[in-house]
Specification:
The longest helix is centred in the first third of the chain and has 14 residues. Strands 1, 2, 3, 4 and 5 form a five-stranded mixed β-sheet that branches. 34% of the residues lie in helices and 34% in strands. The protein contains three helices and five strands, in the order E-H-E-H-E-H-E-E. By secondary structure, the chain is an alpha/beta fold. Strand 2, helix 2 and strand 3 form a beta-alpha-beta unit.
Length: 110
Amino acid sequence: DEWVSGTYDCVLVLHFLGIWSVDKVMYIMNKSYEKLKPGGTLIWACPTYDEHFSGPLHAGVNSAYMHCCVGGKGRMRTVSEWQDIAHKANFKNFVDFHGPKTDHWFVVTK
């Protein structure tokens, strides 16, 4: 909360949103939205499941780790789940880039 609202061009979140429950992810998304300038950008990256939760293996291993070792509430999500979360936080212009291995990079704007 030390960040001044409406003053940031970009918020970058790498490899930790999967740790949290949907409620905590929404809190982080909403805070990011609040802190960004109009037209500001939120970028995040994380391993992501395919839409049928059948792979890739790395996303499944990460989900097991999040569930067993990091508080038991986080898990990897699908691209459509991330899109839905971003939409609920009022972000627009959802773009998904498939990165190395199982990482996806997501870009949205305020």
